UniProtKB/TrEMBL annotation:
Lineage: Eukaryota, Metazoa, Chordata, Craniata, Vertebrata
Signal sequence range: none
Gene name of the record: CLCN4
Entry GO MF terms: antiporter activity; ATP binding; voltage-gated chloride channel activity
Annotated protein name in UniProt: Chloride channel protein
Keywords of the record: Antiport, ATP-binding, CBS domain, Chloride, Endosome, Ion transport, Membrane, Nucleotide-binding, Repeat, Transmembrane, Transmembrane helix, Transport
A Gene Ontology term for the protein's cellular component: endosome membrane
Length: 789
């Protein structure tokens, strides 16, 4: 049967672009799967003919693993370079290394022989800008000069970032994860994963993070890794000519991106499976694991953190957690859920205002303004002045005997003779209380400024800012619980597990749990979040508190809305994404949403042997449907198949160029054999090969819940709805249009009738899921989806 399997055998000779898709359109997963099955069948049959064909078949089989290897190597290398560049440029805002200007502050003092343990952050080779310019390191004048240069560097970095994005690669802005999710669901956005986007996103990501804005590099690294995957797909026709296979590679690339972002290869695979992928077969799971492994190995070889570890925030806690601590852990989960809800609603409101007002016309000015406000407010507070990653690392750390942080300024007992790793709870000193005030101010600052930062026209991730909010809140709660346990150890809640002189509470653990709770509240991740967190910190034995906080934050956040931040941005941008987690609540049938109705234009169809080239071209010109049903005749509208608009346009254009005698009056045939015509008639045009003879069909009494489920799970581009009456074979056609925006599937009305209601016969109706979108530039290139063929 000449069905979807022969869709590539167009006309007598195949020609370019047939079977491809236009920009801002949705792929047909069934067609892509069928094409790949045909390709594999041909390779298998040819492999038996000669040794060379056998070798080619083996190379084809191994091409997927080669692509995964290349993705892992390139994404790991880029992540390592980005980490090193961010460390250097972040420190460049405060000073410079005299012995080697390309060294960061930490690297500069590593190489110094004059660094003492107590002043390990100070060395003669590293000088702040005021000391370098005026010779004075202390004093009001030096502080003001350092302050001014800090703001100036931040403005310079952000201006370069937004200018490069605006001029060279507009798609390099933002996190990229909402668009990656949409692309993996089958949508086409040309250029979003291109070479220029990869280059500009890598460079501007370094500049944006170094500017001190409240954003992270982890989300954009997923976009960078997917750009790498798309780049290597172009080297193999197996992936470059099949959009479905390409998306399998991109799913694995997303796993590699999270692997290098957090040093969490297993968490990366689960993140791709849980959060971004739409179609994730078992084969993709294996390849994702391999890509994440190679990427993590490459990053470890570069060793950008300088600690010979893969993880970003490695911690070592020497105290187990106790059951009573689940109460504050769950409270942190509640805080994370509330913070996630607040952030999503406020950020979406601000982004919608940006789209609908004059603000959106001045992206450079917006970035400069937010950067200036951030730098001016962040510099006086040491916890907001440093990079967000350093802040989280300090908040996660346990206070040992050798820690010099303000957070570890406890009053020590001079008679204490405990091992270094077993320091009992102690009363907080003035440094701790001072740090608490600074952290409280930092918490308010991070909550507010992140709302306005995420979504600007620069690369901006959300993982690290969300974790920072949770880590600050968690550390404050942890210190409060620790001091309560110390001063009130005779309370009933502490009596059973916290004896005087014991090391009971670890404030760093509370910071880690709070970070997981806030990240879960914003993204709605659960399983992958917990795995990422324990891989990120090495705290495997604290998996139960992490799970409790992640589940609580999700429950609380879901009570106010099911969509996470990425799904909310997908809806805001109008991307056609059918989320498998959405529930269809309307009790309607396929017949309830059919068009055209009584006063609508008739259904646009093609006949199998009576339509001329001019008729087809007129139909294409006057309509914007993605395809047309092909019927036997206007009188007997029995369905023959379905033809895509793009394939039809390309076939006629190619025939006019290469086939002699094809004119406007030539008859187009979709039949197996064209009839013999008189010599005086123009040359007919046979287009049987571009006709899909096996389109997916359902009956008119199919519940719309089932129809939507079919589109989600099979990835259909269109579905035909038929009504058959057995008394007499008479057929009519009606059209059904189902919009792809969740919650808007219900359209009132009954189908327009062709003939009297009691007239026996068969009726064929058409359902098409039109996935339409506003492009990122905000220009509405499409009208609302019309009654579609």
């Amino acid at each position: 049967m000449n069905g979807a399997g022969n869709l590539m055998d167009f006309l007598d000779e195949p020609f370019p672009d047939v079977g491809t898709y236009e920009d801002f359109h949705t792929i047909d997963w069934l067609r892509e799967k069928s094409r790949d099955t045909d390709r594999h069948r041909k390779i298998t049959s040819k492999s038996k003919e000669s040794i060379w064909e056998l070798i080619k078949s083996l190379l084809d089989a191994w091409s997927g693993w080669v692509v995964m290897l290349l993705i892992g190597l390139l994404s790991g290398t880029l992540a390592g370079v980005i980490d090193l560049a961010v460390d250097w440029m972040t420190d460049l805002k405060e000073g410079v290394c005299l012995s080697a200007f390309w060294y960061s502050h930490e690297q500069c003092c590593w190489t110094s022989n004059e660094t003492t343990f107590d002043d390990r952050d100070k060395c003669p080779q590293w000088q702040k800008w005021a000391e370098l310019m005026t010779g004075h390191a202390e004093g009001g004048g030096a502080y003001v000069l350092n302050y001014f240069l800090y703001v100036l560097w931040a403005l310079l970095f952000s201006f370069l970032a937004v200018s490069l994005v605006r001029v060279f690669a507009p798609y390099a802005c933002g996190s990229g994860i909402p668009e990656i999710k949409t692309i993996l669901s089958g949508f086409i956005i040309r250029g979003y994963l291109g070479k220029w986007t990869l280059l500009i996103k890598t460079v501007t990501l370094v500049l944006a993070v170094s500017s001190g804005l409240s954003l992270g590099k982890e989300g954009p690294l997923v976009h960078v890794a997917c750009c790498c995957g798309n780049l290597f797909c172009s080297l193999f026709s197996k992936y470059s000519k099949n959009e479905g296979k390409r998306r399998e590679v991109l799913s694995a690339a997303a796993a590699a991106g999270v692997s290098v972002a957090f040093g969490a290869p297993i968490g990366g695979v689960l993140f791709s499976l849980e959060e971004v992928s739409y179609y994730f077969p078992l084969k993709t799971l294996w390849r994702s694991f391999f890509a994440a492994l190679v990427a993590a190995f490459t990053l470890r070889s570069i060793n950008p953190f300088g600690n010979s570890r893969l993880v970003l925030f490695y911690v070592e806690y020497h105290t187990p957690w106790y059951m009573a601590e689940l109460v504050p852990f769950i409270l942190l989960g509640v805080f994370g859920g509330l913070w996630g809800t607040l952030f999503i609603r406020a950020n979406i409101a601000w982004c919608r205002r940006r789209k609908t007002t004059q603000l959106g016309k001045y992206p450079v000015l917006e970035v400069i303004a937010v950067t200036g406000i951030t730098a001016v407010l962040a510099y006086p507070n040491p916890y907001t002045r440093r990079s967000t990653s350093e802040l989280i690392s300090e908040l996660f750390n346990d206070c040992g005997a050798l820690e010099s942080s303000q957070l570890c300024d406890y009053i020590n007992n001079p008679n204490m003779s405990r091992p270094v790793d077993d320091i009992p709870d102690r009363p907080a000193g003035p440094g701790v209380y001072n740090a608490l005030w600074q952290l409280a101010l930092a918490l308010v600052f991070k909550i507010v400024i992140t709302i306005f930062t995420f979504g600007m026209k620069i690369p901006s991730g959300l993982f690290i800012p969300s974790m920072a909010v949770g880590a600050i809140a968690g550390r404050i709660v942890g210190i409060a619980v620790e001091q309560m346990a110390y001063h009130h150890h005779d309370w009933i809640i502490f009596k059973n597990w916290c004896r005087p002189g014991a090391d009971c509470v670890t404030p760093g653990l509370y910071a880690m749990v709070g970070a997981a709770a806030c990240l879960g509240g914003v993204t709605r991740m659960t399983v992958s979040l917990v795995v990422i967190m324990f891989e990120l910190t090495g705290g495997l034995e604290y998996i139960v508190p992490l799970m409790a906080a992640a589940v609580t934050s999700k429950w609380v956040a879901d009570a106010f809305g099911k969509e996470g931040i990425y799904e909310s941005h997908i809806q805001l941008n109008g991307y056609p994404y059918l989320d498998v987690r959405d529930e269809f609540t309307h009790r309607t049938l396929a017949t309830d949403v059919m068009r055209p109705r009584r006063n609508d234009p008739t259904l646009a169809v093609l006949t199998q042997d009576s339509t001329t080239v001019e008729d087809v071209e007129t139909l294409i010109k006057d309509t914007d449907y993605n395809g047309f049903p092909v019927v036997v005749s206007r009188e007997s509208e029995r369905l023959i198949g379905f033809v895509q608009r793009r394939d039809l346009t390309l076939a006629i254009k190619n025939a006019r160029q290469k086939q002699d005698g094809v004119v406007s009056s030539s008859v187009v045939y979709f039949t197996e054999d064209a009839p013999q015509l008189p010599a005086s008639n123009p040359q007919p045009l046979k287009l049987r090969r571009i006709l899909n003879l096996s389109p997916f069909t359902v009956t008119d009494h199919t519940p719309m819940e089932t129809v939507v489920d079919i589109f989600r799970k099979l990835g259909l581009r269109q579905c035909l709805v038929t009504r058959i009456r057995l008394k007499k074979l008479k057929f009519t056609s009606l059209c059904v249009c189902v919009q792809a925006s969740p919650g808007h599937h219900h359209q009132e009305g009954r189908p327009a009738s062709h003939g009297s209601d009691d007239e026996p016969g068969s009726r064929v109706h058409h359902v098409q899921l039109e996935r339409r979108v506003l492009p990122p530039d905000g220009v509405n290139r499409y009208r609302p989806s019309p009654p579609s063929s």
